Amino acid sequence: MNFSYIKLVLAATTAMVSLSAFSQDLIARQAPIDRKLKSVDSLALQKQIRAEQAAYPGLSVYPNWSNEHVQAYRDAIVPDAYQFDLTGFCMPTNNTRITDVFGYRPRRRRMHYGLDVKVYVGDTIRAAFDGKVRIVKNQGRRGYGKYVVIRHDNGLETVYGHLSKQLVEENEVVKAGEPIALGGNTGRSTGSHLHFETRFLGIPINPALMFDFEKQDVVADAYTFHKNQWSSGSERHLASGEGLFYKVKRGDSLSRIASRQGISISKLCKLNRITRRAKLRPGQILRCS
Class of the 81-226 domain? Predict the structure, then answer.
């Protein structure tokens, strides 16, 4: 083996070692760059997600954004459970007297989906949480009268009814505690008060489970909604502290409802002060216990 050949082999080996070392060094130098790029991508993605959440609060669970109806989610997929973060709240009014509670009204034979809080015409009404105004409408002498609906970052929607004046516009972003309206006596109302509702995907939840108006505080830092409190579609059971209620759907009869609820027709009639010949209306609420 001559010297020239050995020199050539050594040169080739040295080149290979140098190339390997250069490659490893390049990879080592590239790693932090890759991490930085991933970090940039992650920050950009997070920024985009936050922007979308600000534009449409509750984007992960709500199927649409509508400025038309309070109950706009008939085809929504209701999760088995959903937890609402109640921190960062603001009481919608400083007044503490509750004049009517959530639940069935036997005298009027219909559900009351919120709490009525005594306020006077012109009292300031504030947003309960950060969010975006979905509805600003006036039903005239019917229902809510002048009302506002806000969808919040925590997934809740709040409804403020019987207002004398709305101070916000649809699609406006608001912060907790920001004035949104003035108390009033509009709509189906017999005296000035705030009708306050908390809803999830259109489903009414008793505000008293989250808000303590007397103490001007939330009941806890979080509240968990459970789907098993409700059945699917138009057969939702309306649970409240006063008992179990049923929303009549098209084609229902007293016998069919009584059978499903596990009670007698006589008891169903007695609870609702109706006769066996009573004509049921779709959407009518019946007390079942």
Answer: mainly beta
CA distance 223 to 218: 10
The candidate with the shortest Cα–Cα distance to 191, out of 165, 162, 213, is 162
**Residue 197 to residue 118: CA distance in whole angstroms:** 14
pLDDT computed for residue 192 by the predictor: 96
Confidence grade of residue 49 (pLDDT, cut at 50, 70, 90): low
User: 117 with 99: CB under 8 angstroms?
Assistant: yes
Three-class HEC string of 68-88: CCCCCCCCCCCCCEEEEECCC
287: exposed, middle or buried (Cβ count in 10 Å: 0-12, 13-18, 19+): buried
Q: Chain centroid to CA 107: how far? A: 30
Beta bridge partners of 222: 85
Between 237 and 221, name the one with better pLDDT: 221
Q: Where are the alpha helices (DSSP H) in the chain?
A: 3-55, 254-261, 265-272
Q: How confident is the model at residue 31 (pLDDT cuts 50, 70, 90)?
A: low
What pLDDT sits at residue 288?
Answer: 74
Between CA 219 and CA 43 the distance in angstroms is 35
Backbone angles phi, psi at 199, to 5 degrees: -135, 155
Q: What share of the chain is helix, strand, coil (3-state, %, to 5)?
A: 25, 30, 45
Domain 243-287 carries which CATH code? 3.10.350.10
Tokens of 97: 């007297």
How many CA atoms lie less than 13 Å away from 131 in the CB half-sphere? 34
- Helix axis angle, 265-272 relative to 254-261, nearest 10°? 100
Cβ–Cβ contacts within 10 Å for residue 125, how many?
24
Q: Which residues pair with 138 in a beta bridge?
A: 146
End-to-end CA distance of the chain: 105
**Structure-token match 């706009």, residue found:** 72
